[in-house]
Each structure stands twice: as C-alpha cells, then as structure tokens.
Amino acid sequence: MTREWPAAASPAAGAVRRRWLLAAAAAPWLAALPVHEALAGAQVEEPLADAVRGALAAAIANSAPPKPVFVTTEARLAYLRWLGEMSSRLKKRKAEHVTRIEFLDTLWYESTRAGLEPALMLGLVQVESGFRKYAISSVGARGYMQVMPFWARLIGDGDVSRLFHMQTNLRFGCVIMRHYLDVERGDLYMALGRYNGSRGKPEYPNLVFGAKKYWDYKPG
Fold first, then answer.
1. For residue 129, which of 40, 193, 21 has the smallest C-alpha distance?
2. CA distance 57 to 175
C-alpha cells in the first residue's frame, strides 16, 4: 500500500500528515506503510566554538570498518539476532536483502559509535525520511537523517552531494544528534526538538518516541 501526501504547502495537508504520523506512533502496524514526504523542520544553524567544531569534524572524518567488530562470540550472536529481527521489520520498506543489511549494519555501527540507541535512530530515520536515501525536505535537508546542508560546510568538506551517501548521512546525523544531546545535558526530549528545529515543542519528539517503539528489541 502506498500513501501519497497532498501538497506540503497546504495547511490542510500538513494537518492530515500530522494526524497520520501521530496515529502511526500509537499503532505500530502503521509503521509498515511507506511515507513519501520528508519530515524535517528548519534546523537552526548555530554558532559553534572552534573546539566544538573541531571535535565534530574529527568525529565525522574518522573512518569506520565496513562491518561491526565484536570482542566476544556472545556479543556477535546477540548482534546477529538483532540484525535478523530488524531486517524482518524493515523488509516492507527495503525489499532488497543486501541493501537492507548494509543499511542496518551501518546504522547500528554509527549509532552505537555515537552512544545512541539504534532503536531511537531507526525511529528518527522513519519520521525524518521514511527510510528514503535521496529524500529532500522543503527546507533542503537531505537523506535518511535529513541533514541540513550547512553541516557539510561547518564540519565536513563542503560537498553537499555527499549527504546522500548512506554512511556519510548516517554518520552526520548520529554525530549531530550526539552533539545536541550533549548541549542539552542528556535531555533527549529537548535534543530531538533541537534536531528538528522545534526545540521545546512536543510534536516531533513524541513522533520519534512513538516510532521507536516499533524498533525496540528485547532479546528472547
């Protein structure tokens, strides 16, 4: 089933979209339906201290292994169980197996590298882009995690086109989310609002928290 949204410029269309997303947060089965409009607010470009900019730039630049590495067999088996379950849940959005596994490998690596919960980042990607690699919002945010172009200039090499590269996009998004969480002293609600450019307003954090429920995983 494919749901196409009315034109984003229409206030009525925005209300329809918000009602549907709020319903999806309450009813996990709706998470299986694809969303065809990127939901990104006007994330604010804030001045960064040189030390902060340098640290963020270093976090973006560090290379990552193509596959997660585990110290123990038990940890690897636990990851493989998570991967299998998440792959099953994501199948309706990403039908091609190799692409799906590559995405989940990378999201797991980048989220845990940044000290973030993978389920939260999956919920954020669902709300922001509906898992569409080349999504572009009305304010110009790009890719899975709807990274604003100014971040490529602030902490990257300035090449905005690279924000459509899967690992680059996920790394930017996770590093930025980690930065906002640190700025907000661990307050996830406020950090999510800052990520969306709607700090202090409940709608966006509640959407992400609702979407996260679908991706929560408790080993049996």
1. 40
2. 9
pLDDT tens digits for 186-218? 999 999 999 998 899 999 999 999 999 999 998
By C-alpha distance, which of 128, 110, 127 is closest to 214? Answer: 127
Contacting residues for 6 by C-beta, under 8 A, at least 6 apart: 12, 13, 16
For residue 143, report the phi and psi dihedrals to the nearest 5 degrees. Answer: 80, -170
Rounded Cα–Cα distance for residues 115 and 111 (Å): 6
Q: Which residue(s) pair with 136 in the sheet? A: 142
For the chain, the distance separating the N- and C-terminal CA atoms, rounded to the nearest angstrom, is 31
**Sign of torsion, CA 146 151 152 155?**
negative
What residue type is assigned to position 112 of the chain? T
Residue 68: pLDDT band by 50, 70, 90 thresholds?
Answer: confident
Residue 126 CA to residue 5 CA, distance in Å, equals 16
Give CA torsion, residues 9, 32, 75, 110, to 10 deg: -10
Beta partners for residue 142, in sequence order: 136, 147
Distance between CA atoms of residues 29 and 128, nearest Å: 18
CA distance 164 to 190: 26
Quick: pLDDT tens for 143-161.
999 999 999 988 888 999 9
Backbone angles phi, psi at 142, to 5 degrees: -125, 145
Nearest alpha carbon to residue 64 among 113, 118, 98:
113
